[in-house]
Please model this.
Amino acid sequence: MNKYNPPRMNPSSLRSRFATRFLRSLSKINAKKPTASSSSPTEIFRRYRRIKVAADKSMAYSVRSRRTWSRAMLWKLRTRPCCRRSVKTSTIVRKTRHEKQNKNTTTTTGEDGVVFGVEADELRELVPGGEAMDLYNLLDETAHYIKCLTTQVQVMKKIADFYSP
Amino acid sequence: MAEVLNRTATRQPTWNTSGFVTEMQSNELNCATEQVGNYFLNPNWDNSMDQSDPFESALSSMVSSPAASNVLPVSGENVMMRELIGKLGNICNSGDISPQFSIKPNTNTGSANASFNSTPLNSPPRLNLSMVNLPAAFSADPGFAERAARFSCFSGLNDPLMDSFKLSGNQSIKVDGSQSIKNSPMEANSPENAESGVSKEDSSVSQQIPARNDAGTRKRKSIPRGKAKEIPSPAAADAKVATENGESNSKRSKQDGSPGNGNEKQNKENSKPPEPPKDYIHVRARRGQATDSHSLAERVRREKISERMKFLQDLVPGCNKVTGKAVMLDEIINYVQSLQRQVEFLSMKLANVNPRTDINMEALLSKDMFQSRGSLLHGIYSMDSSAPTFPFGYQPQQGLHLNSGIPNATETQFSMKTQGFQLPSIDGFTDANPHVGSIWEDDLQSIVQMGFGQNQPQGYQGSIATGQVKIEL
Model:
């Protein structure tokens, strides 16, 4: 073949959505930093934090509010100490709504908690927003969260590869 | 006593004409009366248990036709009828009656349930109170009082029946004039009046079973089933068993359908038409399992959760051989943790690598579009979890080496991708796995052939060196 035709990818898939968002934020972060002090560990660490937040945020935005974990993550990111200044009032409103949503889904895990016990609690800690869910919804959220995490890891790996092959 | 028998026999036809029982039932009643005579003369109530089974079906069929039993003859033969039906009730419940007669009030529930083996659709509370209120004077004729109580329960199907019974009870007081008879109906009536509200509900609920639950929901069905199961077990119990077993029997019957009278119960249930479809999820109680709504809902939940676990098993690699929910959950937790750590590591890596690059965003995006095969990298996620331990100062050095090669990298990567494999990242994703390392070296050679190494031999050597170092690690 003379011409290389790249395979068409679904533009609205989770992967492409996340990739575009993340790359955009990444370029913003890169544009912000001064090149001179880039090698200092603190600066690198700060950038690392920003990139990580950007990755999580872009993933959560790609999922929107369809999932409990994405909502929880977005809320968590919005109420971070450094972001508090601009989003105070709206955050409070969202927080109460979010709490209400969580409370609606809270059910006792009596019969199943006996079966799973500690592991369910560990899973709740891992999955954002998992504290207020019963086991069935928790497993549901975990499945979607795993899928999104794998997408995230794949895209970031490709980007990292691209930057430093 | 024999006179009573004769009177009941003669009263039979009038009873039938009053419409109280159907023909079949009257035949059964006739047979019953003959048997009753035997039992009536037999001071040993325990033996009556042996022949109680054939009459249980008779009584149950009688019970199951509430429509026919609307009218109770309210005339002079009420007393005889009461006695007759009391005797009939006694046949079926005889084994439990005599010990129950000395029950204390606080054990009423057990006794009530125990005495219902043949008349499962009757309401328990009535029997309780009537049993309680029987004075000690009845010890001379325990059977009669019990039969009277039985009849009150027996007629519990219909409220009109109940009312007429009360009426007949009052009349019997006048007829007999004996204190013993007087006491029982009066005292039986007052608590029955108090319990009428409850009994009405019970009778209506119990009527659902024979009348076929066309409108019954799952919950309502489970309640009569639960009650029905309570009833047969005591009948199977030994007659001499103390009353304290009555309560435990009624409780146990919920868990195990007792085989003795349980068969009869299940036959009745099997004869019912199948449930019509209803609005929400219906779970049929399996044989030998509890039927209360809590356990049913719990079972549905457990099934949903196991289905979810199976789905997760497909999602998490390497979980196919794992059996058991706890181990599966551990695997899932480990996988999620490793994924999160991978994200952290990658972001750290990006923070390091970024500084020197002015990468064309579009090229990057198109590169992402190309890469649909992340299988190689994806399959070694476990190794990536160990990547964060990789020396951190290592990477900037690579950046120095390879950044100059970046302008060529895009083209070479494009061409590489067309070959269908992906070059594992140099800095650290590959590992100690020799297999991957060998692939990587092959890729490098192909890169060299494509001209990547031509422009940047230095970078190539550097990358080779780092790659080798990596493999050692």
